[in-house]
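# nightly structure sweep
# worker-07 picked up a monomer target from the shared queue
# config: single-sequence mode, recycle default, output format = structure tokens
# input follows
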Amino acid sequence: MSGLVKPFAALRPRAERAADVIAPPYDVVSTAEARALVEGRPSSFLHISRPEIDLPTNTSPYADEVYARGAVNLRRLRDSGVLMREETPSYYVYRMMAAGREQTGVACVGSVAAYDANRIRRHELTRPDKENDRVRNIATLNAQTGPVLCAYRANATLRDIIGEYAAGTPTLEAVGPNDVSHSVWRVGDEVRVERLSAALERLDVLYIADGHHRAAAAARVARERRERDARDASSQSFLLVAFPHDEMQILDYNRVVRDAHGFSSQDLLARIRDSFDVEPVDFAVAPAEPETFGLFIADRWYRLRIRPALVPRGDPVASLDVSLLQDRLLAPILGIGDPRTDPRIDFVGGVRGLSELEQRVRSGSAEIAFSMHATRMEQLMAVADANRLMPPKSTWFEPKLADGLLTHVLD
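# output follows
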């Protein structure tokens, strides 16, 4: 069995500069949003993860000068002492707290060999353009700056060890976007490192929850560098933070459709009744249980329940709510063939609330909105264990890991 994870010597902010550096993940903000977020914040990590913000507004985010500017900005933060490099490999206990709930895991580097052997398991396809972007980002920075969010099946041993190591004053502490508090404790003592290594290595697998493009790009860089120099060990791992599955939160990932495919609202409801029970209601529908959906059309909410006989319960992918909606309504009735590429469909993370769905329809940018019950962690793990893929936009994890607090340098 290949090694799963190991400690690493992180590049990180000095404790007093963590709040200046912390940034949202590069892929949850647009260029315009990133420009606004860095106003008055010259040390924000967005200058490294979204360096097009420091170039003219018409600059493509994939231009050569963008990647080069990111490397210059990273070097500036290192040279100025905002960022510092640990001297010895360490683990980092990582806690996120938001809205009265918390999740505590371990930041480390995962083995690319374990990823290739499916011991670090994925459940999504990647898009070539996004993967290529991350490859160029890693290669130019000579570092992995965005951690991959992972899960492991919760166990008491790790919970006890992590709880013990998360005592005392954190090494780093900062409040990030959406008022999420991020706390990091460095675990560098040799005895503690060995104890945590042994507990982590006993895990059968890790599951990638969010960050498939980061992981795939790191694996590509690892293969390219291995072919050039077999001694390049640091590139054979990638940055991740792993949490117990029962502490992770998946929010609903809702759908909006631009038009009703030529149907009137009443004709559409009649077609939907072939597979769903349809109930008009006087409130916004946040489905409280699986196999239930909300529908907003013509300024009215409806609750949909798929007929139980239509649910293929033995299939971990086809039985997902996102699959049931796609296979029984979006494709056969509304003509949405491939939701990855069809411009008529868009996706709205549950963090934006049901009011966002209503706004999209009332503004005319969409004619129909569907609210979803959130995918469960057990479903995600079952799909990954079956070596299957989730449909697109199946999960929206909250809270998000921050960029900038921990970076894996490829020495």
